[in-house]
Structures are given as C-alpha cells and as structure tokens.
Amino acid sequence: MKQALRKNRWLIAVTVLFSIIVSAASVLIAILLQRIIDAAIQGNMELFWQTLFFSIGYVLLLGLLSYIYAISSKALIRNWTIVIRDQVFRGVFRRNFEAFSTTNTADYLSALSNDIKLIEENYINPLLLTLQNIVIFVFSLAIMLFISPLVTGILIVCTVLMFVVPSLFGSALQNKQNAVSEQMSVFTLKLKDLLSGYEVIKSFALGKHADRKFGQENAAAANTRFAADRLLAMNESVSEILGILTQFSVIFIAAYLIITGHLSAGSLVALVQLSNGFVGPVLIIMQSLPKIQGVKPVVDRINALADYKDHSFQGVLEPTFQDNLKVSQLSFAYDDKKDVLLDIELTLHKGKKYALVGQSGCGKSTLVKLLTGCYEGYNGMISYDDVELKQLDVERLQQMVSTIHQNVYMFDTDILQNICLDEDFSEEAIQSAIQRSGVNKFLLQMPQGLHTPVSENGSSLSGGQRQRIAVARALIRNKPILVLDEGTSAIDMQTAFEIESKLLSLPGLTLITITHNMNPDILMMYDEIIYMENGRIAEMGSLEDLLALGGGFSRFITLEKSAAV
Ligand SMILES: Nc1ncnc2c1ncn2[C@@H]1O[C@H](COP(=O)(O)OP(=O)(O)OP(=O)(O)O)[C@@H](O)[C@H]1O
C-alpha cells in the first residue's frame, strides 16, 4: 500500500493541493452571501453589482478547480488500483510452490477484486473526503470566529459531542468489515468451486443441489454485508441527528443576537452557511473515520499479499547438471505428522532415462517435486553435481526442468500460444516440437491450425490433445531434464508409445517418467526403473533385472496388468 501511494506521490500532491484550494474557495460563498444580503438590505446598488460580477467569476473558477480536483482524484484511484493489483499479483507469484498451495486460489481472486474495491470505497475515498472536509472545517471556523465568537463557541461544544460517536462505532465496524471481506472470500471460493465443477454437476444432475448451495452462500454474503451496513446506517443516523441539532442551536442564537442588535441579517445568512461548512465536514469526517478504521484488517491482508517475501531457498549458486543428481537419506512430510518419503537413496545420471513406478500415493510425484525445488522442508540431501540444492539458485534450477503433468493447464488463447507461452521460437523449432509431440496429427483436422482457440482451460480440446500440446510445450524448450508425470496417460496407446519412444531416444535428455503404464515394450527402453513402496525406494534396476528379482515390482506389474485387462 505504502509503495503504491509513494509511486503516485506527485498525483497525491496535486490532488491534495486542489482539494485544499477547492475546499477553501467553497467556504468563501458564505462571505459572498453576507455581502449580497447586506447590500440588498442597505439598498447599496454599487455593492450589489460588484458582488454579482465577482460571484459569476468566482463560480466559474470554482467549477474549473473542482473539475481539476475530480479528475486528479479519479486518476489517483486508477493509478493506485493498477499499482496495488500489480503488487498483489507479483506477491502471489513470489510465493513458492508450498506457500502458494496452502491458500485457496479463490482467496487470491477475492483479494484482487473484492478487497481492493473495499479499500477504494472505504479507505481511499473517505481519506480524500476527510482531507477536503478538514480544510472546509478550518476555514469555516476561522471566518465564523471573525463574525461571531459566541456562536462559534457553541458550535464547537456541539461538535465535540459529535466526535464522540465514531469512537463508539469504530471497533464494531472494524469487525463487521472484516467479516464482509472474509465472507466474500468464502463466497468467491464456493462460486469458483461450483463453476469449476460444472461438468460433474451436470452429469450427476445435481443442479438443485448446486442451486441450494449457491443460494446459501449468496444469502450469507449479502447478510454479512447487511450487518455491516446496518451499523453504518446507525452511525450515519446518529451523526445526522446531532448535526441537525447543532444547526438549530446556531440559528436560534444568531436570531437572538439580531434581535438584540449584535448581528446583521447578512451575517446570520453567512453564519448559517458557515455552520453547514462546519457541521457538514464534521459529519463526513465522523462517517469516514470508522470506515477507514473498519477496513484496516483488509488493508493489512492486502499488504501481507503485496509485500510477501519468500524466505525459502536462499541459495545463489548457479546450478549445473553435467553429471549427476544425487539423493541421500531423504525424508519428507507435508504436515509434520507422517513421512511421505523415507530414507531415499538415489543417483540419476545425465542423459539417462528413468521410470518411476509404484502404487498410487506411494510418493512418486512428491519425490520429483523435491528434486525440482518445489519444497524446501526436507531432511537429508539432494545435490546437483555435488552441490546441495539449498545452496543453488532454485529459480534457475527450475529453468533447467520441463514438467508435463497429467492435468495440463491450457491458457484461453490458441494452440500456438499455449506451446510458446509468450516466448519467441523459430519456425523450425515450432515445427519440430509439433512433429515430435504428435500435435501435427490433430492439427490436420483443424481449419485454423496452430491458431485454433482452445477455450477456457482447453475445454474445446480432448484430454489427449491437451497432453500433446503439453509435450510440445516441453520439447520446444529443450531443457536438459524432462519430467513426465503421467503426461501421456490420456493419449491413445499408439501415439503415447510414439511420443515416449521419441523422448527415450533423445540422447542428452534426462527423462524421469512417472507412469502407471506397465507396457514391457516401453519399460524395457528405460535405463532404470525405480519402484517405490510406501515412501521408500524398494527396488531399482532395468526391467530385466527387476523381473529376474521376482520381488515387489514383479508382483506390482502382474497386478497392474491384470487390473488393466
Ligand atoms: N500437498 C499435499 N499436502 C499434503 N499431503 C499431500 C500433498 N500432496 C500429496 N500428499 C500426500 O502424499 C502422499 C504421496 O502423494 P504423491 O502425490 O506423491 O503420490 P503418487 O505416488 O505420485 O500418487 P499417484 O500415483 O496417485 O499420483 C499421499 O498420501 C498424498 O495424500
């Protein structure tokens, strides 16, 4: 937040300056009114014309100044919104894999939309209003003191009373605003869940259930907002009543002073006008301060997201992978309760091909995530060319690895952009990647070819087509390490075989394939099969060696094959 405001300091200065000028100038209306009324009562035609011409010029100038203020304050809000959204977005992407996945993405969405809007409405706007009204208040006070110290004294007493109100509502409102933000976050989360689950809801005919769930969340969000608005309304009404009482006091006392000959009629009009400029600002400040106070937890949350610093993996050494990747006595638990990986000993050599197999949940994906620097909290050692991973610059390490996941995310653009992902590649590289991945096979059926739109998360493509695009995405980058996390599971057997065979024949590439495909024709092409059981490496060797061993892997492959039949 502070940085976002600092970046706009010139615009803030202009806005504040014009806010002061416009506010001060608007107070002078009272003096003009006093002069017109007194001129009329005294029958002073010269003063009348003088004041009339001055008033016309004054109103035109005030209009122009107000316009400049309005434009600069809107530009300030626009710039602030751009900067703060950018900062929150970058803060989210500064999170490492582990930190990112501990928060639901709906929370990030809610912060970037609802929370920023809440801050604009309940922090930035009230802050500008408060400043403007402080200026009006001070100028009105000065002129009123000049016209009638007695009336001013009474006004001050009433105003002190009015200031007590916001402090009564402040902390209650803070809790309510916080609840609104939290409830909106829950609402966004549920809504995202329901929309993402569209297919499941439709295919299981769960429309009514979805309606009911949405209805509950919708009502809960609206009711939480209403609870905060109810308190705001009470705060505003109490302030309003106090304001009216104050104005009545001024009029009655001023009227008394006119009757006793201590005040002119013009001064009464000026005092009434000034009391508006005195009470009005106090009212606005009273309504604005609780809003500013109330939205503080939301501001804190946005600050925490924008200023997020990743303290994991502080290593700075340039990673290399000339020879090997070693793992020694590696253990890991996600939640400090149960070890997901235990005493892993492993050496992977550059250019070799490894198949990682084992029952679902035995820790295959977790092992690969640790090898590629996704989680830092492991015990034991992972080293690239004998340098511990924690000493390496992990961002650069991750640039050496391409991963093809089972569930491929597709951006809502076309096929080409989903392969290149905003990077520039030569025509030759693109053609080579689409050939080797098998993308060319289905492009023939598409009139727009590589420029065919894929729709939201690739919904206009089949699972296999999405996976082939993911393979092209990885191949075009030519990284030394490729992780295939069941990355061809949705492709037909023949194409999957072709793709995997091509990957297996790339000489410099180190391939780690997590697979449930127990086809011996493919498995025999791997240099080593790493068979895992309950978080440990149970067996490791070529297909031939492991089958000859007749241990856990042999039983596993037999079971998998019979399950597939
Ligand atoms: N982010 C996470 N937080 C907590 N536990 C997790 C997380 N990811 C995985 N696990 C747990 O860790 C264990 C190993 O999961 P992992 O995904 O590594 O298994 P896997 O062998 O790759 O399974 P599969 O073959 O089904 O993909 C499982 O018990 C799983 O529930």
UniProtKB/TrEMBL annotation:
Compartments it resides in: Cell membrane
SMART domains to which the protein is assigned, alphabetical: AAA (SM00382)
Keywords: ATP-binding, Membrane, Nucleotide-binding, Transmembrane, Transmembrane helix
Every ABC transporter domain range: 325-559
GO molecular function list: ATP binding
The keyword Lipid biosynthesis is assigned to this record: no
Primary location recorded for the protein, binned into one broad class: membrane
SUPFAM superfamilies given in the database record: ABC transporter transmembrane region (SSF90123), P-loop containing nucleoside triphosphate hydrolases (SSF52540)
Domain of life: Bacteria
Entry membrane topology: Multi-pass membrane protein
Residue stretches spanning the membrane: 12-37, 49-70, 127-147, 153-173, 241-259
Domain ABC transmembrane type-1: from-to ranges: 13-294
PANTHER family: ATP-BINDING CASSETTE SUB-FAMILY B MEMBER 10, MITOCHONDRIAL, ATP-DEPENDENT PERMEASE MDL1, MITOCHONDRIAL
Name this polypeptide is given: ABC transporter ATP-binding protein
Originating species: Paenibacillus puldeungensis
